[in-house]
Amino acid sequence: MEDIKIEEGVLVRKGKLGYRLIYPYKRADGSINWFNALCGGSWWNFGVTLFIVLAIFVSVYSYKHDIAIYKNVTDQCYTEPCKWCDIITANNLQKSKFEINLTILDHLEVIDDG
Question: Cα separation of 106 and 92, whole Å?
């Protein structure tokens, strides 16, 4: 396969599926072409790579943040379960738009088979 030089740092190579652009990170003299090494040969490639890397970092940060919140909630629940239950019950009653009786035992009937 023969490489055809288009301009400094860009080559065209014929492959099995046709021609494609090659952005080598080393020049012919052996020095490093920093633009090709860091940006992938074009600003578009750099932008797409940067977007993917940022999406991964944001996902990892979001996951760690959610796990930290979950850990705080479970620690509070384990240390003071009665206080936690009172907080949840009070918050649910304030958010509810309907009158709901949370004491289910008042409405149950005991069935005696004997």
Answer: 20
Instruction: Render 54-90 in DSSP notation, one character per residue.
Output: HHHHHHHHHHHHHHHHHHHHHHHHHH-HHHHHHHHHH
**Quick one: the chain helix, strand, coil %, rounded to 5?**
55, 15, 30
SS3 105: helix
Alpha carbons 101 and 108: distance in angstroms, whole number: 13
Stretch 42-68: mean pLDDT: 93
The mean pLDDT of the chain is: 76
pLDDT recorded at residue 62? 95
Confidence of residue 104 (pLDDT cuts 50, 70, 90): low
Chain centroid to Cα 81, Å, comes to: 32
The DSSP code for 26 is B
The residue type found at 25 is Y
What is the three-class DSSP state of 32? strand
Amino acid in the structure at residue 110: V
Residue 59 or residue 28, greater confidence = 59
Cβ pair 24, 11 in contact under 8 A: yes
